[in-house]
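Tutorial, part two.
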Amino acid sequence: QVQLQESGPGLVKASQTLSVTCTVSGASITSAGHWWMWIRQPPGKGLEYMGLIAFTGVTEYDPSFESRTVISRDTSKNHVTLQLTSVTAEDTAVYYCLLWGGSWGPGTQVTVSS
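Running the prediction step on this input gives:
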């Protein structure tokens, strides 16, 4: 069973870079056919797709986040990282990583302070 666990800073200051890591167990992030996605949910709002990294290392970003987002991976640690630059209070959200068509992590709350 694939399990995902997000870890993040909890609190980030406005204009800084947010970095959240997703540690994967039960599968390799390079396993064929696996796409690792990032989604967030701001308070009182719906889920927002941010982007993904494929098992090949290829990335895709939602246009709304593309200019500020980098998704990367560390195959030696079997984890995937989301970086979001120039954050504002609107980036306050619960950030989730998930395996497309499979498991979700529990999410991690990130709050942006002014």
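The chain is about 0% helix and 50% strand. In part three we will examine how such features are distributed along the chain.
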